[in-house]
Design goal:
The chain has 9 helices and 14 strands. The protein has helices at residues 18-31, 40-48, 84-92, 138-144, 211-214, 218-224, 238-243, 252-261, 278-294; strands at 2-7, 64-68, 75-78, 100-104, 128-133, 161-166, 171-173, 176-183, 189-195, 200-204, 229-233, 266-270, 301-304, 310-312. The protein is of the alpha/beta class. The N and C termini lie close together (5 Å). The radius of gyration is 20 Å and the shape is globular. The structure holds zinc ion (2 copies). The site of one zinc ion has 7 residues, from loops.
Length: 313
C-alpha cells in the first residue's frame, strides 16, 4: 500500500508568513559562498545540502492522509482537512481519474472536515464517495457545514454519488480491511487500522494517550501490536502537553513510548501545532530521535509528517 500526506497540521491551517519566508531567505544567504554559485551543479549541491526546515516547509494544511491499496483503483481518504483540496488537484492530473473515494472520519472537529467543500472530485457525477465513521449522524454533520450562513454551496450541489455509512464493524474491501478503535479526545475520536494482508497501517490522530492505551489487553494488542506504520498525534512538546492536560492531544515523547510499547516499526509525527514553525518541528523530530537513543528504544523509525510525503509499505 502507498500512504500519502496532503495535510499534517492540527487545529487550524497555518500558512507560511512572509516574515518566515524572509528569515529563511536570509538564513540561506548567510550560508552561501561564491563557490556555491559557480555553476548549475554547485548551486544544486548547495540547495541539496540545506536543512529541510530552510529549503521547504512542513506545510500548513489540516489533516488529510490517503492510502492506495495494491491493485485497487479506489482511494482511501483519512479525514478531509484543508489538505484534501490539493488531493483533488493532484488526482485531476491523473489518467484515468479515480472514480471511487472512501472517506474515513476520525471525528468532526473543523480541522478534519473543512476541506470537503473544496474537494473537486465530489462535484463530478462520475465519482462515487462513500463516507464512514463510527460517530452517529455522519450525514448531518457533513451537511451541517455546507449551509447558510457558513457556506454558500449546499452539499446537494456536489454531483457525485454519496453513500453514508455508520461503521460498526470491520469494513472489508478488495485488497484490505479497515477496523477502528475509540481514542481519548473531547467528544471522542477514532483511529483506523488498514490491513492489506501484508502490512498494517494505523491512523491515530487527535488522541491524548493515557495509561489505558498502554494496557496489554486483547483489544489493544489486536489493534496496535507489531503494526508496520502509525501516523500519530504528536501535537505538543512534553511541557506543553502538561500545561494542556485534557485538551485531547499528545506529547511526541509519549507517542514514542507508545510506539515502543507496541513494537510498532515506523512512527510518523502528525497533527503539528499551528504555532510551531518548521524549525521547531524538525527540532522536535531530532528530540524524538534523541529520546529513542537515550531510552534505548532502538529499532523504531521516526519520520516527521510533511505535505507531499509518501511512504510505501
Ligand atoms: Zn485535529
Ligand atoms: Zn479534534
Amino acid at each position: 500500500m502507498l500512504v500519502r500526506f496532503w495535510g499534517v497540521r492540527g487545529s487550524l491551517p497555518a500558512p507560511q508568513l512572509s516574515s518566515q519566508v524572509r528569515s529563511k531567505i536570509s538564513a540561506i544567504l548567510e550560508r552561501l559562498t561564491p563557490e556555491d554559485i559557480e555553476s548549475p551543479e554547485t548551486r544544486e549541491r548547495f540547495l541539496a545540502g540545506l536543512p529541510p526546515w530552510l529549503f521547504g516547509t512542513v506545510g500548513g494544511n489540516t489533516p488529510c492522509v490517503t492510502i492506495n491499496l495494491d491493485d485497487s483503483p479506489e482511494v482511501l481518504v483519512f479525514d478531509a482537512g484543508s489538505g484534501i483540496r490539493e488531493l483533488g488537484n493532484a488526482v485531476s492530473r491523473e489518467k484515468p481519474n479515480p472514480s471511487q473515494y472512501r472517506l474515513f472520519f476520525s471525528h468532526f472537529h473543523w480541522d478534519h472536515i473543512q476541506g470537503l467543500p473544496f474537494f473537486g472530485p465530489s462535484y463530478d457525477p462520475a465519482v462515487t464517495m462513500d463516507f464512514y465513521t463510527p460517530h452517529r449522524d455522519i450525514e448531518s454533520f457533513l451537511r451541517g457545514q455546507m449551509v447558510h450562513p457558513y457556506f454558500p454551496v449546499h452539499m446537494d450541489s456536489m454531483a457525485s454519488k454519496k453513500n453514508f455509512h455508520l461503521m460498526n464493524d470491520v469494513v472489508t474491501l478488495k485488497g484490505g480491511a479497515i477496523s477502528y478503535k475509540k481514542m481519548n479526545h473531547p467528544g471522542d475520536s477514532y483511529s483506523f487500522m488498514v490491513n492489506d494482508g501484508k502490512h498494517r497501517f494505523i491512523y491515530a490522530t487527535d488522541t491524548e494517550l493515557s495509561a489505558a492505551d498502554f494496557l496489554k489487553n486483547d483489544e489493544n494488542t489486536r489493534f496496535f501490536k507489531d503494526a508496520d506504520l502509525i501516523v500519530i498525534d504528536c501535537q505538543y512538546t512534553l511541557g506543553e502537553a502538561i500545561e494542556k492536560y485534557n485538551w485531547g492531544h499528545s506529547a511526541f515523547s509519549l507517542a514514542v513510548d507508545f510506539a515502543a510499547n507496541w513494537r510498532i516499526k515506523h512512527m510518523v509525527l502528525f497533527h503539528h501545532d499551528p504555532t510551531y514553525n518548521d524549525r521547531k518541528l524538525y527540532n522536535i523530530l531530532q528530540s524524538a530521535r534523541w529520546y529513542t537513543e537515550r531510552m534505548n528504544l532502538r529499532g523504531i523509525e521516526l519520520t516527521l509528517a510533511t505535505e507531499g510525503l509518501e511512504i510505501k509499505l
